[in-house]
Amino acid sequence: xxxxLHYITLWSVLFSISTFYGQINKSTGxxxxxxxxxxxxxxxxxxDLDSTSKGFYLPRMTTAxxxxxxxxxxxxxxxxVYNIDNDCVEYWSAxxxxxxxxxxxxxxxxLDIEAGSCSTIIFNGFPMVHGKxxxxxxxxxxxxxxxxxxxxxxxxxxxxxxxxxxxxxxFFSGEGQFQAIGTYQIILKGMGxxxxxxEDGGDTLKFIINGKxxxxxxxxxxxxxxxxxxxxxxxxxxQAQGKYYVGAVASAAKDNKIQVNVKVxxxxxxxxxxxxxxxxxxxxxxxxxxxxxxxxxILEPIAGQNTPLENIQERYALTFAVNTVDxxxxxxxxTAEVVIAETKIDAQFDExxxxxxxxxxxxxxxxxxxxxxxxxxxxxxxxxxxLKGAGGIVFKAEDIVFNMPAHSDDLQEVTFKAVAxxxxxxxxxxxxxxGDDPRFTIENGTVLRLPLTIKPVQYTLDxxxxxxxxxxxxxxxxxxxxxxIQVTADVTVVGEYEINTDxxxxxxxxxxxxxxxxxxxxxxxxxxxxxxxxxxTKIPTNKxxxxxxxxxxxxxxxxxxxxxxxxGYNDINILVLFGEKSNTTTPRSxxxxxxxxxxxxxxxxxxxxxxxxxxxxxxxxxxxxxxxNFVALRAQLVTDILAGKxxxxxxxxxxxxxxxxxDLADALYKYVTxxxxxxxxxxxxxxxxxxxxxxxxxxxxxxxxFQMASIPGGLKPNGYDLIKQFNGGNDLIANNxxxxxxxxxxxxxxxxxxxxxxxxxxYKRNTNGKFYDIHWYMARSLTNFGSIDGxxxxxxxxLADRGTQFGDARxxxxxxxxxxxxxxxxxAEDWFExxxxxxxxINANGExxxxxxxxxxxxxxxxxxxxxxxxxxxxxxxxx
Length: 880
Hints:
Elements lengths: L2 E3 L24 E4 L13 E4 L9 E2 L1 H5 L12 E4 L4 E6 L4 E4 L8 E4 L8 E3 L3 E2 L2 E5 L10 E10 L1 E8 L4 E9 L3 E11 L9 E3 L1 E4 L2 E2 L7 E5 L4 E4 L3 E3 L18 E9 L1 E9 L4 E9 L3 E14 L8 E8 L4 H5 L3 E5 L3 E5 L22 E10 L1 E9 L3 E10 L7 E11 L7 E8 L4 E4 L3 E5 L6 E11 L16 E9 L1 E3 L1 E3 L8 E2 L7 E3 L3 E9 L10 E9 L6 E9 L4 E7 L12 H6 L21 E7 L5 H13 L5 E5 L9 H12 L4 E7 L7 E4 H5 L17 H9 L6 E4 L8 E3 L38 E4 L5 E7 L9 E6 L5 E7 L24 E2 L2 E2 L3 H17 L2
Parallel strand pairs: 1-32, 2-3, 4-5, 11-19, 21-27, 28-34, 45-46, 45-47, 47-48, 48-55
Antiparallel strand pairs: 5-6, 6-7, 8-12, 9-12, 10-11, 12-15, 13-14, 13-17, 14-15, 16-19, 17-18, 20-22, 22-25, 23-24, 23-26, 24-25, 26-27, 28-29, 29-32, 30-31, 30-33, 31-32, 33-35, 36-37, 37-42, 38-41, 39-43, 40-42, 43-44, 49-50, 50-52, 51-53, 53-54, 54-55, 56-57
Helix pairs in contact: 4-5, 5-7
């Protein structure tokens, strides 16, 4: 399999590297490499660097900066830096308590040539001409006999390396160390062979001391007299042999060379160079020639000048240079050139990858659209590449440097980014590969086929819009299509879609897909979608509320969480504790009829498919306080209430509350405070027909109602005490405003959940434009304008005189502020028992009138009010 070269950056990290798990044999440590051949991490290495083209770069500091580190170096034993003052790697030794040099046992010394000693430099083994040493071109130096002696001033102990160079094939050098500061005389031995000779003048020598050029003795000169070397080129046109590629090192091992034939007149050591600085190549050859012969000198690339820098043109002329006294006569008309190969690649289109940004038909390209194209480099070089297609499609890979591969099957990956264009409505588009360099060619085809896909559907769901076709799934019967889920989708891209519930409810899943066929958006914008039961034959059997999510099974990736769905409504078990004023078998109200009767449409108001609201099964149990067996019945009620048998309790009729003993009161209190259900607590209405005020509970707790018969077990105050208990132990004031003719008892807040109009039961107005009163004991002629002052109490008024004008201070029916399902209704009158009177508030089937009537005269809004509040309470319990 072909290998793709990956180039990484070598990070400079030492001694503080964290431990990683390498990818080779899971060794502990890190190996960083620019090599394409995997090697195991070295056994004892925490950091293994592998490169033939990059080095390891230590922190660089001056001596002063290094010494500034000396704060608590006992903790930094082995700390390493590169000292740029002495050009050496150093590390801190805690044992020696000093910086040690990796250049030697000592750091480089601080020294220079002694000032004023230039005239005392001795050139041993050289004849002196006019005070200057003289050498012979082509005659090698003898280091044992030819050397320089000079004086040095040492300012800091350490090692030294000193070279005297000429750039003419010879040099002097010496090295060692100074253990003490002071002035020293040292010897620098001569080596090499002078290449060039001069009729006049010579070579200016440079003194390099510990890597730095000295500024002392800058005019020291070595004379080199020319040899008798004389020869001529017999070959005229020379071309560098072998192949040359930009960035690839040329060498004799690769057969990179130039052959020059010569005719020798006077022999000697001949040196020939062929150079082109623009392309970065120099060839050089040296050979000892024999007089009166013909010979051949081989010029080879020299290190540091053996890598072609460009291939803008095919051929580059090389300039010859020789070490004879007459270069023109030696070279004559001979020329040389080198041919640099053009940049050439073989693109592997079948191995192209297309990034992470999808390519959709008719989509506009962005720079996030990328293409990675592996190429085989046949000829190295540099070029900007393009992939272009019809309709202005352009991808660009800028200034790509192609490197000759280490192995013939290695590939180099080129990354293109989209520049411009819109993709066509097609399954693919052809892109043509090209380069902007004039000497750039592509082998084996230039066409890349870019596959395109249809852009998938895109939309978002408005999770706040979720609704169901009915309040709950049907219970114990096939779900069919009776229960569906609706949600609004905002479509931005049309196409097939599928939305499902993520969890099954009683084995039932919902989906927009019908009979295995996905639905499709054909237009954009907001539109409602419907989820149906996947299997309509499934039967929900476990009542309750379930939480599911809506999940798009497509590319839109949209979801809605915490969607609440119900299976079956709660059954509602109603208890009516009824107490008429006398022990009659014909009560004049029928509260129970409201819950179990049918409307004129023939449909039940509650239960499955209820016309007012859908609930579970509704049952009503009525217990009368004047029943001869009431004491036993009351004890059973306590047991049943504590056992959770009832979830809607009505205490109705002026005598009913007097039948509540302490045990029943405690059970009712626990029932309310543990939120088991609704308590409609009806108590007596205070009517005075005059201006009057009383402490309500204190007045009525033992005040026997007019014409009330004896209750089995006796009259009990605990029911009225329960009112105080719900009010933090405090009594409330009942008032009658007999002189306030503007009294108007109406709904306090028409938008209140409990009292807002439902099912068409709006609150009607009289001919004066005022709302009809909601009052069970209205007798304006008797100035019977009663109310309860609930200001600052635990209750808030649902009915209040003139609505919000007086607020809780003049209320008639109240909701508890903490226990929202506890309703207090101090409305029971002497002349009528219960809440709803047949013929006035409801018809014979318990259906409320839209406005109450007495003798075909509209009088009050009681029927509408009770229809609204009791329906809301039933809905609460059904959905609890």
